[in-house]
Amino acid sequence: MSDSNQFKLAGVMGMPVFQSRSPMLHNYWIKKYNVKGAYGHFPVQIDDVEAAVRGLSALGMCGCNITHPHKIKAMQQMDVLSPLAQRVGAINCIVVQADGSLHGFNHDGFGYIQSLKDVNPHWRADAGPIVVLGAGGAARAVLISLIDEGAQEIRLINRTRDKADELASVNTQVVKTYTWDERHAALEGAAMLVNTTNQGMYDQPPLDIRLDALPTSALVSDLVYIPLETPLLATARQRGHVTVNGLGMLLNQAIPAFESWFGVRPEVTDELRQSILATF
Ligand code: NAP
Questions:
Q1: CA of 241 to the centre of ligand 1 (A)
Q2: Which of 41, 72, 267, 276 has its CA 20 to 30 A from that of 25?
Q3: Tell me, what's the pLDDT at 184?
Q4: Ligand 1: which residues within 6 Å by Cβ?
């Protein structure tokens, strides 16, 4: 990707995928930084992931994002995986190298941590116990990024306990699991609460949790971004907590991807945030 005059094509593969704001985000930066390129939606059926990913190089594309439900299947097609993607066990970004080989990355954790620092530049993972609710794909990236940032104690709670126990094996010194029934009491003394479940999303019921035991100094974050303020975040705001919604994670995970494809490190500005917000 060294020729700055070459037209570069990237996109996002998923199914469904037309709801993704990634094309709007990357095309905004393409225009802003005067890059010769374009970014599109690529709806790909699960049985076609291998052919679609392998076709990136033949099509002359510089890479693509991978979204639900292809993050694991696409990973299996990579020639090289970043160490972080290996630990997370999923990719959200492919970079086609000059020799046509495919390198896989996972930038979800970077996006998540940056979204916290955007709201509080002094945020630290070792400020106290962190309660993580959920043990799906997003939880894995978030949990590993919190550990890498220096978290000392993570209380991991999932409706299906087995999945939490399996995820906790990434670092059993730091991560302790609790039952779903223990979620309210596990908030005692916590410095932060993260919702990585889908509860509170526009098509789901609110997350069922009582915040009484959570110190009001605790930061409350939700990966959900539709709606921007979930019932959890609304309750937390009313109690006086600093809150962080999922939009910042979505925007920030795109920074390293754009840089590796188009050679410019882009910025998440208020103008960009507003233009994406206007589409919700
Ligand atoms: P996933 O792999 O399907 O995991 C779903 C999680 O939600 C599991 O932990 C599941 O628990 C839990 N859950 C589902 N129904 C529940 C219920 N009724 N009560 C309690 N827990 C329930 O999904 P994912 O990919 O991790 O995504 C999770 C959320 O993160 C989604 O809302 C997604 O939109 C959001 N997300 C946001 C970003 C961003 O950039 N902001 C990025 C990725 C994901 P069980 O294991 O018990 O089923």
A1: 23
A2: 72
A3: 98
A4: 68, 108, 134-139, 158-160, 163, 196-199, 201, 223-225, 246, 249-250
